[in-house]
Amino acid sequence: MTDAPAYGFDTLQVHAGTPPDPATGAIQTPVYQSTAYQFRDAAHAARLFNLEEIGYIYSRLTNPTVSALAARITALEGGAGGICCSSGHAAQIMALFPLMAPGRNVVASSRLYGGTVTQFSQTIRRFGWEAKFVDFDDPGAIAAAIDGDTRAIFCETIANPAGHVTDLDAVAAVAADAGLPLIVDNTSATPWLCRPFDHGATLVVHSMTKYLTGNGTVTGGAVIDSGRFDWAASDLFPSLSAPEPAYHGLTFAGLGPMAFTFHSIAVGLRDLGMTLNPQAAHYTLCGIETLSLRMARHVSNARAVAQWLEADPRISRVSYQGLASFAGQERVSRICPRGPGALFTVGVKGGYEACVALVDRLTLFAHVANLGDTRSLIIHPASTTHRQLSEAQQVAAGAAPDMVRMSIGIEDPADLIADLDRALAAA
Ligand SMILES: *Cc1c(COP(=O)(O)O)cnc(C)c1O
Questions:
Q1: 117, 229, 295, 370: least CB-packed within 10 angstroms?
Q2: Which residues form a coiled coil (predicted)?
């Protein structure tokens, strides 16, 4: 990343990481559709493979278009370094991989994206990793769940599915007391609404599939490192603090603030192979150019729709924490001063049947299992993503039968409200 003046967010989202192409002067970052990069000579190749010189070898590790994207997100998050990978779920594995080992665990918030709950409660067990889910509104519960095998703390800034804002300062204090890194999934907030490093996070992960790309075209993920965690302060993180046999005994922690990023490229991407392709990186770079403009509109639309729903007699509750009636204003204004995103849940008085009729009768809202699109999206979890669960499990997961989740897009708010009004009348 270049160092130049301390530009504001709107400038960085257009320029960071992407100076004009040195070969052609192209101002839009070219899609470097190349698998491999020619070495200048044998000595150059040897230095690259020894990590003594930084350069491109093979696109499973690094690619110029993908690196430009990583540099831009790193700048927006205020991190020291970062990598991009093939999806948000890949980013979560890439973030945990250098920290975990068989028998180790991550203490995770019980409020998470549904796919993350499955990844953490089922799939990571095959690596011998475990997740312990606790209520992150209770710092004492987080501290109590930490044991000698815990290697990371994990939460979302604006948590699924209800749009609950996490008190990152309080969670980071618990992590710091335990000498553990805090990983924050900043997908639903984006760095425009919250920069988790300003609240003590160690690593930020993103599903770029959502707001960063913004238009529902490609999947992608990112892991950004604050560069502030001292991996060598304990013997908990040997992948970073002990000599790496694959690099002639190099110790990644010796690379200082770039330790985690270099490990992610030289070991994580090299051996796990969850690489982002340069075409997808191009779409995401284009999307990020308008991130702040879109997020401002997402938030103001979400406020307008949530206010209208809250006042409607057919609605029993609205979870949006940007409503004036919400009691936890202090936390929202501290963590997300520009507003708590555009994701919330809505209770419909007619229960399961009314929810199904509502999603079927909406014409503008798309009925899909996604969030963070320019389009407004709705899903009824009890009949889709959470239909395998019992009613008691659905309620516990925040997916009660009478509840729909909305992700508000950037359309005309009056049109969204009119669509909801018509569909509720018919339901
Ligand atoms: C979508 C999402 C993910 C997973 O990202 P993919 O790109 O679909 O793999 C993780 N966390 C959150 C908060 C998400 O919204």
A1: 370
A2: none
